[in-house]
Q: What sequence folds into this?
């Protein structure tokens, strides 16, 4: 089983540069910008990304997959242009916008967010039956997969596929800047399992130990990242199911963890987690009403030679891939109960940090 890789990086210099005030000029300072001024002609979409991401947050969005920027040991597909356009708008509204609203401005995200956001069209399937849903490299770059399966009309899918991943990875960035309290590590100290966490396949396997997901039980740093993301993205029904399965002892552990996280985020980053959760879930519901393709981008899409595919087409493709995996005797469906001792691999998400 592939385990998460931790690449510690001192971000003091990065934070200092990022939080420094901008010069009062019309053009961004190239010495503080993630990008040098580009000489080649940019498309309308490139220009929008430059204004809304690079100029606003010092973030570069990579939507045209480059070999040097991706894992060359995997078979990955680039993100479709239309899907990249839509997801860029969605992330700006439901992720950056949520933190801006919760913190009262753009300064926090400009200083703390990753310097690069990379979009990959396909899933990254691992040889052990897991899917890597996101990667974070030293707090500088976050990669999102499954962009081509984007369905902007399904807030639940958006939350699970993209936003839980982003909140998880972002919490690692915050923790690398300012470490969480050591007390957190002691709550479930005897139950972490770095090499066999994936054998905890149901709520009954991990919730009684005080974990919100199986992956949370791998190590403390993944535990606190998972609980942080869950606090923002899980519905009331999901939390109710976790607490019910956890029992009295597991629920007590979870409540201790939640209290530590809320206190840490409030005292360290001035963020009220309950307020952020409400804002995030509201903005998620607003996505289907957004105009995700700007009129000036339409010529770029009409010029594509490949036929455009609907969300239904991608949903069918995803179901087909999933179905083929489940037909393999080596894999099992985690949505169903299984005989104890079943040794088949599980299809579950993980991250690489």
A:
């Amino acid at each position: 089983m592939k385990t998460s890789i931790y690449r510690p990086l001192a971000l003091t210099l990065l934070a200092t540069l990022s939080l420094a005030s901008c010069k009062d000029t019309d053009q961004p300072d190239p010495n503080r910008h993630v990008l040098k001024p580009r000489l080649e002609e940019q498309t309308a979409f490139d220009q929008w990304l430059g204004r809304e991401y690079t100029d606003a947050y010092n973030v570069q969005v990579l939507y045209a997959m480059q070999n040097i920027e991706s894992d060359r040991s995997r078979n990955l597909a680039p993100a479709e242009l239309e899907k990249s356009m839509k997801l860029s708008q969605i992330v700006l509204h439901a992720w950056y916008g949520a933190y801006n609203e919760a913190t009262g401005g753009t300064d926090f995200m400009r200083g703390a967010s990753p310097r690069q956001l990379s979009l990959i069209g396909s899933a990254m399937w691992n040889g052990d039956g897991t899917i890597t849903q996101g990667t974070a490299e030293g707090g500088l770059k976050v990669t999102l997969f499954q962009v081509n399966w984007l369905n902007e009309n399904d807030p639940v899918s958006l939350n699970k596929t993209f936003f839980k991943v982003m909140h998880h990875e972002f919490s690692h960035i915050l923790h690398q800047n300012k470490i969480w309290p050591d007390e957190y590590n002691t709550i479930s100290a005897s139950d972490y399992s770095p090499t066999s966490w994936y054998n905890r396949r149901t709520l009954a396997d991990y919730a009684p130990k005080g974990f919100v997901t199986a992956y949370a039980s791998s190590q403390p740093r993944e535990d606190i990242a998972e609980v942080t993301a869950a606090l923002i993205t899980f519905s009331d029904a999901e939390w109710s199911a976790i607490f019910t399965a956890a029992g009295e002892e597991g629920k007590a552990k979870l409540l201790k963890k939640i209290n530590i996280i809320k206190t840490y985020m409030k005292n360290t980053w001035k963020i009220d987690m309950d307020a952020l959760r409400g804002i995030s879930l509201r903005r998620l519901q607003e996505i289907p009403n957004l105009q995700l393709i700007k009129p000036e981008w339409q010529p770029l899409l009409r010029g594509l030679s490949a036929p455009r595919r609907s969300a239904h087409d991608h949903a069918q493709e995803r179901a087909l891939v999933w179905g083929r995996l489940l037909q393999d005797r080596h894999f099992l469906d985690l949505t169903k109960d299984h005989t104890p001792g079943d040794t088949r691999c599980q299809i579950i998400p993980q991250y690489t940090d």
Residues 1-33, 67-72, 328-348 have pLDDT under 50 and may be disordered. The longest strand covers residues 130-137. The radius of gyration is 20 Å.
